[in-house]
Write a sequence for this structure.
């Protein structure tokens, strides 16, 4: 089998947000939003990134795009570290890494027509002008399943699903190689979610796109992803092929998450054991020592408080950060 080509490589990425308590306070507290994560995304694949709200998924996506500059670490896109680029050099790279935002109501400028919204990236990057740009916008609208005749309409004239399609068309305007999908379906009706996911899959096949798909809906992530990374309190605790992760989860947090996903067979569903996590998610301002998950883990022992578990390959292509991963696999 041919070696897969790495399109994006994230190495030891940190993003901390300082907390200012007052104008003259010298507080050094900070939110550990992303706290030392590493992973790769291969050309043409979809990597799903899942976890509870507030675990750092969206911050990871925005830091990859350099919408947030990382506190430390590297983001290699096609071998070049985006974290080291500035100004024009970063702008040129950005056209190949685009984002679909979570809220289709907030991410589109209400004062601009659909044609202006989709055409704006072309203006900024000077790729298409005049009649050529108009033709390209109409092409993109057709590509995402919208009528090109809508080109002069405003965002408020569309439904949520249609607006998200406009967001997808805008992300495609510069022919990107990687698209960060930041919970692109969570604000939509359930009936519309499947349509948008199917559209993303069709576009991936047609245009050879690569996705980082951020979500908290585990069944949807299983449907769209090739591999899945599970995030908890700023770190990745498990990463594996989607079928393997769902069949044989190793990390106690992943086991608990998957036990909450409804199963379509009523007999299996009735006899399945749910894992209820005790306590609340600790504050990202003051995360627990050692293993982040130890305060809610049924397997936690002394070593979990003293030593941070290594994120290592437990089975071929299956990584986990747990001191007891060999016993739990």
């Amino acid at each position: 089998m041919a070696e897969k080509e790495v399109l994006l490589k994230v190495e030891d990425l940190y993003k901390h947000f300082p907390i200012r308590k007052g104008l003259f306070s010298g507080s050094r507290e900070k939110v550990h939003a992303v706290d030392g994560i590493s992973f790769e995304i291969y050309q043409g694949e979809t990597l799903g990134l899942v976890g509870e709200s507030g675990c750092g998924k969206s911050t990871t996506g925005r830091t990859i795009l350099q919408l947030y500059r990382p506190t430390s670490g590297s983001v290699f896109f096609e071998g070049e570290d985006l974290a080291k680029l500035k100004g024009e050099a970063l702008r040129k790279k950005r056209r190949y890494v685009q984002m679909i935002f979570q809220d289709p109501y907030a991410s589109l400028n209400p004062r601009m027509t659909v044609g202006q919204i989709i055409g704006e990236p072309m203006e900024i990057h000077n790729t298409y002008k005049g009649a050529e740009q108009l033709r390209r916008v109409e092409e993109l609208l057709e590509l995402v399943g919208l009528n090109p005749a809508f080109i002069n309409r405003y965002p408020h004239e569309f439904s949520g699903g249609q607006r998200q399609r406009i967001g997808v068309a805008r992300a495609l305007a510069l022919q990107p190689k990687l698209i960060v999908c930041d919970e692109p379906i969570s604000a939509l009706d359930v009936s519309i979610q499947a349509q948008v996911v199917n559209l993303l899959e069709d576009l991936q096949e047609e245009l050879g796109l690569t996705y980082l798909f951020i979500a908290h809906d585990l069944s949807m992530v299983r449907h769209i992803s090739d591999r899945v990374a599970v995030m908890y309190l700023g770190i990745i605790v498990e990463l594996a092929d989607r079928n393997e992760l769902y069949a044989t989860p190793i990390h106690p947090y992943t086991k608990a998450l998957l036990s909450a996903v409804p199963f379509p067979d009523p007999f299996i569903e009735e006899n399945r054991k749910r894992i209820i996590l005790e306590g609340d998610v600790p504050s990202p301002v003051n995360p627990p020592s050692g293993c982040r998950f130890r305060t809610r883990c049924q397997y936690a022992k002394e070593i979990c408080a003293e030593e941070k578990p290594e994120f290592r390959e437990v089975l071929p292509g299956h990584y986990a950060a747990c001191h007891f991963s060999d016993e739990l696999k």
Observations:
- The two ends are 27 Å apart (CA to CA).
- The chain has a mean pLDDT of 91.
- Residues 6-18+30-96+176-248 form a domain with the Rossmann fold fold (CATH 3.40.50.300).
